[in-house]
Amino acid sequence: VSGLEAPLGPGREFDLIRSLVRQWGPLASGIGDDAAVLGIGAGEQLVVSTDTSVEDVHFRRGWLTPREIGYRAAAAAVSDLAAMAARPVGMVIAMSLPETWRGDVLEIGAGIGECSEQTSIPIVGGDMSKSHELSITLTVLGGAIRPLRRNGARPGDLVYVTGRLGGPQRALEAWLAGDTPRSRDRERFARPVPRVREAMWLAEHGATAAIDISDGLVSDLAHIAAASNVDVGIDLERLPLVDGASSRQAVASGEEYELAITAPHALDTAEFERQFGIPLTSIGQVAASQTQPRFLAREGGTFVDLSGGYDHFSS
Amino acid sequence: VSGLEAPLGPGREFDLIRSLVRQWGPLASGIGDDAAVLGIGAGEQLVVSTDTSVEDVHFRRGWLTPREIGYRAAAAAVSDLAAMAARPVGMVIAMSLPETWRGDVLEIGAGIGECSEQTSIPIVGGDMSKSHELSITLTVLGGAIRPLRRNGARPGDLVYVTGRLGGPQRALEAWLAGDTPRSRDRERFARPVPRVREAMWLAEHGATAAIDISDGLVSDLAHIAAASNVDVGIDLERLPLVDGASSRQAVASGEEYELAITAPHALDTAEFERQFGIPLTSIGQVAASQTQPRFLAREGGTFVDLSGGYDHFSS
Question: pTM for the full model?
Answer without folding.
Answer: 0.90
